[in-house]
């Protein structure tokens, strides 16, 4: 589960994917388990939920390079594009509204496009979190 965003700009609406991952880590009681993984240039926490092993990932790169971290982590943890969930902001959704999207185009989102390019696939499931238009 990768929370897309701009690592140096936490707390902004554009980095809501990372905020969702922080919340998920707290709910799964692994918030203290975040560690820097230099191999994929990301903060990583491992968790278990409903019998599934999860790799929580917050790339330490700007949004348009998030895919490099996601692809590196996929290789390290032997994951295919279909195993990956991206959590990212969506300008076209009202603030706080969420939607799940299975595959498809990036719809102009630079972080998603970076992931599609780095993984050579658009099969990732996406949790789109509405941030509305300013």
From TrEMBL:
<dbReference type="InterPro" id="IPR001328">
    <property type="entry name" value="Pept_tRNA_hydro"/>
</dbReference>
<keyword id="KW-0694">RNA-binding</keyword>
<dbReference type="GO" id="GO:0004045">
    <property type="term" value="F:peptidyl-tRNA hydrolase activity"/>
</dbReference>
<keyword id="KW-0378">Hydrolase</keyword>
<keyword id="KW-0820">tRNA-binding</keyword>
<protein>
    <submittedName>
        <fullName>PTH hydrolase</fullName>
    </submittedName>
</protein>
<dbReference type="Pfam" id="PF01195">
    <property type="entry name" value="Pept_tRNA_hydro"/>
</dbReference>
<dbReference type="GO" id="GO:0000049">
    <property type="term" value="F:tRNA binding"/>
</dbReference>
<dbReference type="InterPro" id="IPR036416">
    <property type="entry name" value="Pept_tRNA_hydro_sf"/>
</dbReference>
């Amino acid at each position: 589960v990768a929370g897309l965003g701009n690592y140096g700009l936490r707390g902004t609406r554009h980095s809501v994917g990372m905020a969702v991952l922080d919340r998920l880590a707290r709910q799964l009681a692994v918030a203290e388990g975040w560690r820097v993984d230099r191999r994929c240039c990301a903060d990583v926490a491992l968790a278990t939920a409903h019998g599934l092993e999860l790799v929580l990932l917050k790339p330490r790169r700007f949004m348009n390079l998030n895919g490099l971290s996601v692809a590196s982590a996929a290789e390290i943890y032997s994951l295919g594009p279909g195993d990956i969930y991206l959590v990212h902001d969506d300008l076209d959704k009202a603030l706080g509204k969420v939607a799940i999207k299975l595959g498809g185009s990036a719809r102009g989102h630079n972080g998603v496009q970076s992931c599609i390019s780095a993984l050579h696939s658009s099969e990732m499931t996406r949790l789109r979190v509405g941030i509305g238009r300013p």
